[in-house]
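G., the chain you wanted modeled:
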Amino acid sequence: MAPRWAPPAGLVLLMLLLTPATVRGDKPLRGGPSGAGAELEASSAVFPLYGDVYPHGLYYVAMNIGNPPRPYFLDVDTGSDLTWLQCDAPCISCNKVPHPLYRPTKSKLVPCVDQLCASLHGGLTGRHKCDSPHQQCDYEIRYADQGSSIGVLVNDSFAVRLANTSVVHPSLAFGCGYDQHVGSSSDVAPTDGVLGLGSGSISLLSQLSQHGITKNVVGHCLSLRGGGFLFFGDDLVPYSRATWTPMARSAFRNYYSPGSASLYFGGRSLGVRSMEVVFDSGSSFTYFAAQPYQTLVTAVNFKTFFTCNTT
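Predicted structure as C-alpha cells:
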C-alpha cells in the first residue's frame, strides 16, 4: 500500500510463495527500554500471518500493544514506514474495527522535536518544523488507493515474544489515527490499523533494531492457501529449510526490491529491460509504469488480433 506521493516504479509485485525482504542494520546491540536495562542479544520474532490474496486481499498480524497489552490486527505493509492504529483521541472519523479503539494518554505523546518525528516528516513531506518544543508530532499520510490517516505520534509498549522464548516490552513510536478514510465507514474493517515495514527509521522493524532486540531484517512466507509467517531478525534463515530471496534497498524511497526485471509475453522478450521491481505487501495488484504498460498492451492486442484472424 504505497503512499500516494511515491514516484511510480516499473513494477509493484505481490509475491505469493516466499519473499523475504532484507535490510540489515549496523547499530551495536544494547539494552532497550523493557525495564531490565541489561544487555540484550539480538534474537528473532515470528508472527503468524492471517488473510489471503483472494477474497480478502490482505495479510495481517496480531500485535499486543499497551499496558496491559491488548490485541490489535495490523495490515502488513512493506510499502510504507509508519505503523498506526485507529484510536479514540477522540475519533473524528474512524471505521468499525475488530477491537476497541486504542486510547492514548497525554504522557504517550511524542514531541515534535523528537528525532523520530523529524524522520517521519522527512519521509512524508520532506519538511519538518516545530513552533514549540512542547508541540505534539502530528502526521498525515495518504496512500495510492486514496485511503488516508491523520493523527498524532505516540509511544507505547509492545509485547514481543522472541524466538529464544523471552518476552520483551519495548516502547515504540506509532501513529494514533483519529481521522481515517479507509474503505466504507459502515463496514467492519478487517484490521485495526497498518503495520508499516518500510526501511525508514520510523518503522517498527527499524525501532526494534535500534533497541538491539532484533536485527534490521524482515522476511515473510505467504501460503497460496492463505496465512503464513512474518519474521523479524535473521536467526531462523539458516534453519528454515526454505529458499530465501534477498531484497535490496530500492532507489524509490524506502521500498524493497529483489532487483531489476525484464518484460516477457508469451515466452518472448518485449524489449523492456532493467525495470526495478518494488515489493509491496499492502497491495494485491501488479502495476506497471506507462511505458512498459503500453508495450504489454500492444503485445496483447496484437496477439488477440492475430489469433482472431487465423481461426
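Residues 13 and 151 are 29 Å apart (CA to CA).

Shout if anything looks off.
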